[in-house]
């Protein structure tokens, strides 16, 4: 599967309650909100002073993926992947209510501790219809598979065919969950995917990016998102990863040394990826 042009994706995780990353998170939120505002289509994402805001506590503890045409280039797209660690804040949980959310999972033989949520897939206007949205969505799915997800869930708009877009990846709408949401000015529906099943027409791409995920991980402060960074400095706690066959494969496929970085920052993640992290 090719997507028209090559894309460079940086993946990083912002720790829960990490106040030192506030500037970085603020930049991410402004990027998302500006794109979601969509030239006035979703006015709730613009502030009274003409700025843009998309403040969500879910940003802390989540994985963030930023897509560029080339390394060091301007960010052109973004998607977020949340793990069960912050499941109480999931957008799908808020959309359905806690009881209905857990009922939906049970109906599919799933639990809250094994369900990830992907959200906020956005692409700049000048980069649309070039395959970046496909690539970022597949990257988040591949990362979720690598991190041990048994399911992925998310809210999807319907006005522009977002729900049909996700169906191409193997997501399916959950019956009875579609309703109008004024914040987005459109109907929203819950979509569910089981990583053990086919990713539709993008199965090959998702599998490829599952292997590439470890080598895409950078420390949050090195994300290069227009805020102060330390590019070129390699922290002492950034570890080599050849402790699992999948990580070794990622290094072989990409030719880039796999690094632990943010993968080691969470005991929950480390326990599921088999990382040999420093104590």
Describe this protein's structure:
Strands 1, 2, 3, 4, 5, 6, 7 and 8 form an 8-stranded mixed sheet that branches. The protein has helices spanning 22-37, 91-96, 98-107, 132-146, 162-167, 203-216, 245-254, 267-273; strands at residues 8-13, 63-68, 77-82, 115-123, 151-157, 172-173, 179-181, 186-193. The protein is α+β, with helices and mostly antiparallel strands. The longest helix is centred in the N-terminal third of the chain and has 16 residues, at 22-37. Helix 4 links the parallel strand 4 (115-123) and strand 5. It is globular.
Features:
alpha+beta; 279 residues; disordered C terminus
What value does the average pLDDT take? 82
Amount of helix: 25-40%
Assembly form of the protein: single chain
- Give the helix tally: 8
- Which term fits the overall shape? globular
Low-confidence stretches: 227-262, 272-279
C-alpha termini separation: 40 Å
Beta fraction of the residues? 15-25%
Q: Sheet with the most strands? A: 8 strands, mixed
Q: Order of helices and strands, N to C?
A: EHEEHHEHEHEEEHHH
Radius of gyration: 18 Å
Structural class: alpha+beta
The number of E-state strands comes to 8
